[in-house]
Structure to design on (248 residues):
């Protein structure tokens, strides 16, 4: 097996943040990781693919509100910054909490140039940023088409793109549920692919570039579905790969 990359130093985990902010995020991440492992038996594959330093655009499918917790846990000890819908910041206490763990608001009802500018500033500092190109949580567990906003961000940032797949969170806390399923919850898995150089994706153009990225994530999602099933945690809704991918 190839050697895992050396973990980043404390400051390198989130460049430009204070030690207190870095330690607070690490504490919150540790608590989330423990909870996800205890309740949903979180399993992670490919953690060694996470670059320890440098700007990184992390791209994942979106099944549930649990996804940011799962991906943030999976890529640790590297810290993530998050793009979240602006409605989550309306409450004073809630807004302060999610801001303290690196969340940045984005409007979903209109092009948000300020959010894109903030995302580019975040990456320019050498940080890692998580985005969900589908734009919203899936309605049926399957991946939805990637929106062009993700391409705009990739083309301007020109940094490595890390594909990540999440599976099982749809069964744990699907769209429309008021509360997550806790007792007897399903297994949850995260698979991290190899970073894709920006130039490699951009050379394909918007449509083919997004298709390649989405296809890579969907193939990993299918593999996760099979691995979770073999581990004794079958999911209620088999994934339906996007054509022309082979059936799971």
């Amino acid at each position: 097996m190839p050697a895992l990359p050396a973990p980043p130093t404390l400051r390198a985990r989130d460049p430009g943040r204070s030690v207190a902010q870095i330690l607070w995020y690490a504490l919150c991440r540790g608590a989330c990781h423990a909870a996800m492992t205890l309740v949903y038996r979180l399993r992670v594959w490919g953690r060694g693919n996470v670059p320890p330093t440098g700007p990184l655009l992390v791209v994942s499918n979106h099944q549930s509100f649990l996804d940011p917790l799962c991906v943030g846990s999976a890529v640790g000890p590297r810290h993530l910054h998050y793009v979240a819908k602006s409605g989550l910041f309306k409450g004073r206490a809630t807004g302060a909490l999610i801001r303290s763990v690196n969340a940045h608001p984005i409007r979903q009802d209109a092009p948000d140039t300020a959010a894109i500018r903030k995302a580019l500033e975040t990456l320019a500092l050498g940080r890692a940023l998580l985005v969900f190109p589908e734009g919203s949580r899936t309605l049926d567990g399957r991946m939805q088409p990637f929106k062009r906003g993700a391409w705009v961000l990739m083309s301007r940032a020109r940094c490595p793109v890390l594909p990540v797949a999440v599976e099982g969170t749809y069964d744990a806390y699907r769209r429309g549920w008021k509360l997550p399923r806790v007792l007897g919850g399903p297994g949850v898995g995260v698979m991290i692919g190899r970073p894709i150089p920006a130039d490699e994706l951009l050379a394909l153009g918007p449509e083919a570039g997004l298709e390649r990225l989405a296809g890579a994530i969907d193939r990993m999602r299918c593999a996760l579905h099979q691995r979770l099933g073999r581990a004794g945690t079958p999911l209620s809704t088999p994934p339906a790969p996007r054509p022309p991918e082979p059936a799971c």
